[in-house]
Specification:
It is a single chain. The protein is of the alpha/beta class. The chain has a single domain, classed as 3-Layer(aba) Sandwich (Rossmann fold), CATH 3.40.50.300. The chain is built from eight helices and five strands, in the order E-H-E-H-H-E-H-H-E-H-H-E-H. Helix 3 packs antiparallel against helix 4, helix 3 runs parallel beside helix 5 and helix 4 runs antiparallel to helix 5. The chain is globular and about 45 Å long.
Length: about 200
């Protein structure tokens, strides 16, 4: 079984990935942040490094999906390949930070990859308001994220909401992360686990 977490920057994907992996003894696959050679440069000069960063993430996510297809175990994935293609890359293009030629090249590569992959059995979307995202981004204190603007987060949130409203590749569970602190509050964590349990019951 393949379960994947989706959500904006600071949504709580990595934290919930760890919680679900520990609770269900699933294999966690995390987004490559620490070893990403483009992130610092991207946030310093988005227009110069947008294409490089998006290709890096696309490659990384595709490799994870190939790994998942060969693993004989249940997997929980931190962020999906669809978010790169339907949210981050189009957002950079619309902001003029990813030129049309590079964007079309990127889309063509994604479409080729998508034709060979299987969607997650369950997609968990962590819905957050901007104040909550900003608070969590500041709390985790990643230096390269200090320059992320509220406008950028807002644009991404709008795209996330539009994307999730039309997602039809499998089961979807939407969790209101503004109302549930599943990291610090044990009762809230139990609520989230119950919601996930109800969704995966028919997947095993």
């Amino acid at each position: 079984m393949h379960v994947a977490l989706a959500g904006n920057i600071g949504a709580g994907k990595t934290s919930l990935t760890r919680i679900l992996a520990q609770h269900y003894k699933w294999e966690p696959l995390f987004e490559e942040v620490i070893d990403n050679p483009y992130l610092d440069d991207f946030y310093d000069h988005m227009e110069r490094w947008s294409f490089n960063l998006q290709i890096y993430f696309l490659n990384s996510r595709f490799r994870q999906l190939l790994e998942i297809s060969h693993l004989n175990k249940h997997v929980i994935q931190d962020r999906t390949i669809y978010e790169d293609a339907h949210i981050f890359a189009p957002n950079l293009h619309s902001m003029g930070l990813l030129n049309h030629r590079d964007f079309e090249n990127y889309k063509s590569l994604f479409e080729l990859m998508e034709s060979t992959i299987k969607a997650p059995d369950l997609l968990i979307y962590l819905r957050n308001g901007i104040p909550n995202l900003v608070d969590k981004i500041h709390k985790r204190g990643r230096e390269y994220e200090n320059t992320i603007s509220i406008e950028y987060l807002s644009r991404l949130n709008e795209r996330y909401e539009a994307w999730i409203s039309t997602y039809d590749k499998g089961k979807v569970l939407i969790i209101d992360a503004d109302a549930l602190d599943f990291v610090e509050n044990q009762e809230d964590r139990s609520v989230v686990l119950e919601k996930v349990e109800a969704e995966i019951n028919g997947l095993f």
